[in-house]
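Continuing from the previous page of notes. For each protein in this section, the sequence appears first, followed by its structure tokens. Read the first protein now.
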Amino acid sequence: MCGIAGWLDWERDLTRESGTVRRMADTLALRGPDDSGVWTATRIGLGHRRLAVIDPELGRQPMTERGGDDGRELAVVSFSGEIHNYRELRTELTTRGHRFRTASDTEVLLAAHREWGPKAIERFAGMFAYALWDIAEQTLYLGRDPLGVKPLYYAEHPSGLVFGSEPKALFASGLIRPEVDAEGLVDVFTVAAKRPGDAVYRGVRQLRPGHLLTVRRGATTARRYWQLTTAPHEDDEATTVATVRSLLDRIVGEQTVADVPLGALLSGGIDSSAITAIGAAALAADDRGPLATYSVDFAGSEDDFRADALHVSRDAPYVRAVVDHVGTKHSEVLVEPASLLAESGVTLRARDYPGVGDLDVSLYLLFREVRRHLTVALSGEGADDAFGGYPWFASEAERPSGSFPWSAGVKDRNAVLSPELRGHLDLHERLDARYREALDEVPYLDGESGVDRRMREVYYLQHTRFLPFLLDRKDRMSMANGLEVRVPFCDHRLVEYVWNVPWRLKRLGGSEKGLLRAAVEDALPAEVVHRPKSGFPVGQSPEYLESVRTAVSDMIESDGPAMRLLDAGTLRAMVRDQAWVNGTFTPPPILPRALQLDDWLTAYDVRVVL
């Protein structure tokens, strides 16, 4: 994985702007610490920061394709991510007469574009974002993987557009400035309700997952090349279980390909444990084992842990069970509570906007330690979304909430907003509107009704709203450390199949993710197969909670920029709430986010436009 950036301009000569393009790319240096490159022509400049994973010696970028008798340049690409089926595509392209000078998937992408044109993207399985400039056509193609694992932002300006892996690259062009309007503030004050394509900042867009953007002089068009397609599921139970396992074996096998050290993230839950077991088997088959695994916990969690609906048990005993059963080389990363607030600014700058407090920081610190030993790590992210792992799946089947399930219990969203902001923004109204918009997109099955219809909606909301929130967090925290994290459960071939499996089969045996558990039960110890869903560890240390309390109190008294948007009385009441200060609960999520909001408005010089 890498960082890409670029500038298209139909009026300015960009051969004179290589310094600007390099500056844009260099904002992404953490994503690509191994190499950098810039390619410019009259109308376009492409920048690249490389994390070398496949063919480290010859896979440098931006990469050009040459052809014809004179060896002229035909196309150039700046590519981030991995095409996991590139070996299969390379074989097919070789039979069609293409010759390769590297072993990289980037060169396969260029050859595929030459062979199949813009439709080549439909053949890619993987996680990727790319900018390809077709020199003969004078056309720019921006492409993003089906599930949106890799980010790609862009913003139009009067004579073209700028783009990059993160918003900071766009701002470095000098053509776009950080501004946020009411719709962007909805994304700041809520979780996982962002419309596909929205990007918090005014005038900045994300290329939607499964889309290809084509930019020609005078015309910009977006084509959706992949989407969830609804059809009756005709496989019986045994076939369904076997198909899921077969897909996982194939996908994980593809994703263990790397020319650098590779390992896995392990929590002791069914998702990461399944990937660990299958990945370890794939490495062993190639005589590349044992698999290195990493888990995270908080120092003092034995005393501080308190179970709740999303965190039912500590990970450590289950991690040990998997390590002993599979035979991995394991390391535990311990997070010190004092670092949670201290590193908050680092994670803010990784995201480019406020995140989710200690959940970001602990993940960032895990990835930082993993990167000292590995370049690539496999993750179980996405299994809950495909197979139904969160508590709200079962509750929605019994009592539909009529809202985004993960936030249906929030009572007064507007209480934290300042009186002035409330005059411009009603979070309840905005979220209700977004929820209705999302339901209008759902591809229902003809004749589907009742529980099956509602669960179709919930899974759609999960894939298009909640999962992007998780993938964005994973990408930013990992790439801020130069670590590539692969997500086999987000391979579109698996997602396509499981999408049409009925709710009763996904909940096989009456348990959440029952289908997944059945598919991998032969590879794992029984206690792990039957362990209920337990979320990513959260900071429950009284010291951390007290530090948040003090920091928020200081922010209120100093009347920082965030206080123009926040209600001081509501924040003071949250700070005084001894339930969370004493460690009985984690702090209300708004408190760490409020601190980052204050930092963000200052550090990015954000202009609020209402």
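Done with the first. The second protein uses the same format. Note its length before scrolling.
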Amino acid sequence: MEYLKYNEYKSNLLSQTRNSVKTLNLLNNSVTFDYLRAAVPEKSIKKARYFIITGNGDSYCSALASRPVFENTDRSSTTGMVPGVATETPRAIEFSRYYNTYRGWDPTRVAQYMLLAISVGGSTSRLVESILRMNAIGGQTVAFTQNINSALGKAGDYVVDINTPECDQPAPCVTSYQASLFAADMFGLYVGMVKGFLKEEEANERRNAALEYVNSFGGRVIDEIEEKTFELSCDWLDKGIEIMDFIADGPDYATAFFGSAKMVESFGGLTTIDDTEDWNHINFFNRQPEKSGTFIIANTSSPAFGKSLETIDTITALGRPLVIITDTNEDIFPKSATVFSLPKPKYSWANALMQHIPMDYVAAYMGIFKGETPYRANSEVFNDMGRRIRASELEIIV
């Protein structure tokens, strides 16, 4: 196959990815701490002791990636004590149909729960169901959505308007993911301030540090990432690589999960997602390793970095095509791997805001090369299944 120059290609997914830095700067201007104070009063935050964050698809990735901000892990000591608020991130159906259904709810604690349900469109049935369940039990609920008049927005006690910037649609969404993640991160800092874990100047310093990290991708940096992913995509297409594994641990798992989702949404790629330990128990045995493209996120800030290095050695020994996304120098990794050595943030939770970009670009280029329609939108069957997500029957379990 003959290829154009990388910057001559156009698609909605490419456009959203190229505008990532601009998107987050716009969000920084709209999702302010003053706005969050007005959206969810401090007295309600003070009342809450247990936070549950949930979503579906990209929104669930936002929930997973924002959890460290609520737990305030950048203040954690070597004792492992968590200085922030108790936070859980169950899947939406896990919360709406199973959470505490066996042991029941402690009546002395119910009012101390706060559920944050993330859905950009605000019409996903399981998220609406989750909020209605928490409402029925007696906890507090906050809807994170760009459609405040949606079913989700109307169901929540409070609404945080994600205020997603305008972007080229339809596409496997990058802009909406960044919007929901940034809003959740800033809400986590707001909670920290109200609870007394952070002074206001400390919260503002963290916000500014995250934005400084985002802006470090500007100019030639993001162009170089795109050019490198273009070359990788051309190589993988020519080699017939369509099966892809995504590997990461902790909050980085959310980024790997998001990257795998973009491959599926963009061109119907066959992907799996696992952590560094379980991958060695299962996908290690896949046949045709030379046809299994493998992405691993290996950050030095991760407690599992050592296990990531072990897994990278194993992947290399198997002869798998390997992509490493990292916050450190590429010299420590095998020469056979394609390494994206990205800027390192002051606070590790900010990695999730930008480390998905190499995978977004690969998804975009593979979709273009294969001539696929994102989301299988040219199929009545797939369009109907999408509607079922929003029309699925609600069942409130108390």
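What the second structure shows: The domain at 12-215 is CATH 3.40.50.10490 (Rossmann fold). The chain has a mean pLDDT of 95. We return to this in next week's lecture.
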